[in-house]
Write a structure and sequence with these properties.
199 residues, alpha/beta, Dna Topoisomerase Vi A Subunit, Chain: A, domain 2, 2 domains, two-stranded antiparallel sheet, 7 helices, 7 strands
Amino acid sequence: MIHRLPTLQGVVKQLQQVPFLASKNLYRVLSHFLEMDPAKIDAFCAALKSAKLNLIPCSRCFVWQERGQACLFCGDTKRDTSIICVVESWQELLAIERTEGYKGLYHVLGGTICPLDGIGPEDLTINQLVSRIVHPVKEIILAMNQTPEGEATSAYIVQKLLKIDVKISCLAKGVPVGSSLEFIDRLTMFKALADRRPF
């Protein structure tokens, strides 16, 4: 039936390209947009376009930042520059920040090594991480999700850092295996950071 509604079909094709939008919710999301007030649709589209134009990754830690402004983390003189917490994406960073217990710097990899998806080490910011590890950096916290891809990425990073004099730690195993950090509650995340162990 949808092929008889080319306009609707066009929107559906665009929504199908959103990676984390489950197919069972696709038509609910579409209905939500179709029922929105035109002014709200305009505001939504304008905000999305503005984000695309004005948000860029920090050239050092790869966290999103406003174009033309200092990075919220690299530019914060109150943060501990001797510790770098390595995360897969900015969603995990936000989960850690919600604990209010970590005051070091971050490094966003942009994903994990996953040969099945065609993602290798060169597709991530691992080399940029290695180049950051100079004085005063003393510790690297590997805060990867407890998945096979996360573990493989952590192991690869450890191999890259073997010849560098830096402490490498990972989150305590209070974080459930197979879970995503962005969905972990604040207390569990805080304890995982506080009780981190050598990798």
